[in-house]
Amino acid sequence: MERVSTYREVDQIWDACLRVIQQHIPDESFKTWFEPIRPLKIYGKVLTIQVPSQFFYEWLEDNYVNLLRKALDYAIGRDGLLEYSIIVDTGNDKHQPLTMNVSTQKSPNYSRPDNFATDPRMGSNHKDKDQDSMNLDTYLNPNYSFDNFIEGDCNRLARSAGFAVAQRPGLTSFNPLMMYGGVGLGKTHLVQAIGNYIMNHFDNKLVLYVSSEKFTNQFINSIKNNTLQDFTDFYMKVDVLAIDDVQFLSGKEKTQDTFFHIFNHLHQLGKQIIMTSDRPPRELQGLQDRLLSRFKWGLTADLQTPDFETRIAILQKKIQAEGISIDYDVIEYIAHSVNSNVRELEGVIVSLMAQASLTRREIDVELAKNTLRNIVMNEDKEVTIDTIQETIADYFQVTIADLKSKSRKKEVVYPRQLAMFLAKEYTDLPLKSIGYHFGGRDHSTVIHSIQSINLLMDETPDVEETLQKLRSYFK
To answer: Coiled-coil intervals in this record (predicted)?
Structure first.
């Protein structure tokens, strides 16, 4: 007879699932789609979770089924199943349960190297060892492809080099291929797109994608279990090694030694090596010189913050993928307001969809503005162009509409210039986007406003005093 676990056990199991999930998705997506979930019970190997709506359930199944499978593998085991209890808004607080088991079929791309299990293409006879050891994420996410990677000036070199490598792995001069850039700019998407392309076009190629953190953990486990030779042999048999976030190898001397030998072996055999990092090789600290020199053998390509046109394309692609329709003025507002990375742009669309569904509202500029205000509110009270406009309007007793209007009255022009000056000081928005938020003015008007305030500060002490008062509102 299957045992029903206690509430404490259910919470512990779900907390374990959440730890896995949180590592693989943006914070905003995690808050929107996983924080509202409540664990109800665990009966044998079946975990029941409570979700707030039918839409919520369908979104999880359409977008996160593979991630939920991975979380269940970690928290319960490969035979773990998931059941949903959906709240139906009938006014009587009753639940209508809906059962849907997440598929237990593992990705066919690769076997688990933590057990050094046999792979038909490797011709080895390693026995399974330590069945309870850490699961190493070796399979690729099929959602990452070149088709849904938006190309722009910010990433054209990396994308072109990546596609060349995917077409001729190990045969181009781009070996190793090192791609670097900040968080959320598409490094992981691109490296996995390369892996997926090779898997789909070269049946005989063994592709291994792994984060440097998990590579390190696997290395430590192999020492603990006295299987270091098996570990090294496993990696030396792959045809394409893609290792994410190599900066995390910093300071790990023994791990670097092993990776150095694996790197040399693969490179000498003409196998393809792909790496990502959050900074260029010359800025990587705590890595051996001999490794850094090898990182520079091939091509180093950077991914930069997307420009306005690329941000528009990213948003349109995301909206198309979700099968929804959003007016262009909303897309334009988001593109002008979010100037950081691809992940945050896509997170805004997810949040907008959730807000529209939960509040039963159409997605318009006002909803986008409210959603963005909620996203950027954090412990540091991040200053946005909206908060600057609101503060200026209150201080000078004008309306936000006045600030965006074509009025040339002195009582409007001066506050508008101050607002543009502070927007340049407090936000990362380009001049073009600042002008957009002030009635669609061009960047030259913003430059003129900033220069005008600088001149006034030199000529009139009161202007500097006014700025200090305004700045105090943002602390």
So the answer is: none
The identity of residue 78, as a single letter, is R
Q: Are 447 and 431 in contact (CB under 8 A)?
A: yes
432 annotated as ligand-binding = no
Q: Is 162 annotated as a binding residue?
A: no
Contacts of residue 84, Cβ cutoff 8 Å, sequence gap at least 6: 48, 49, 50, 51, 57, 60, 97, 98, 99, 100
Q: Which residues contact 460 (CB under 8 A, 6 or more apart)?
A: none
Closest by CA to 450, choosing from 440, 461, 463, 439, is 463
Are the C-beta atoms of 95 and 86 separated by less than 8 Å? Answer: yes
Cα(455)–Cα(414) distance, rounded to whole angstroms? 13
| Coil, strand or helix at 437 | coil
Tens-place pLDDT, residues 113-158: 333 333 333 333 333 333 223 333 445 788 888 988 888 888 889 9
Strand, helix or coil at 119? coil
Residues 6+ apart with CB under 8 A from 332: 312, 436
Task: Give the pLDDT of residue 2.
Answer: 45
Q: Any binding-site annotation on 186?
A: yes
Structure tokens at 388: 């600057």
**CA 331 to mean position of chain CA atoms:** 20
How crowded is residue 237: how many other Cβ atoms within 10 Å of its Cβ? 17
Cα(449)–Cα(412) distance, rounded to whole angstroms? 12
Cα separation of 144 and 321, whole Å?
13
Within 262-379, strands assigned E span: 272-277, 299-303
Q: Is residue 184 annotated as involved in ligand binding?
A: yes
317: nearest Cα among 357, 349, 361, 363:
349
| pTM of the shown model | 0.54
Backbone φ, ψ for residue 87 (5° rounding): -75, 125
Q: For the segment 68-109, what is each residue's pLDDT rounded down to a tens digit? A: 988 998 888 888 888 888 764 444 444 444 444 443 333 333
User: In Å, how far are 423, 435, 475 from 426, measured between CA atoms?
Assistant: 5, 15, 11
Rounded distance between C-alpha atoms, residue 113 and residue 136, angstroms: 7
Which DSSP symbol is given to 94? -
Cα distance between residue 454 and residue 418, in whole Å: 10
Residue 83 bridge partners (DSSP):
48
Tell me how far apart the alpha carbons of residues 207 and 193 are, in angstroms, rounded to a whole number.
Answer: 12
CB within 8 Å of 35: residues ≥ 6 apart: none
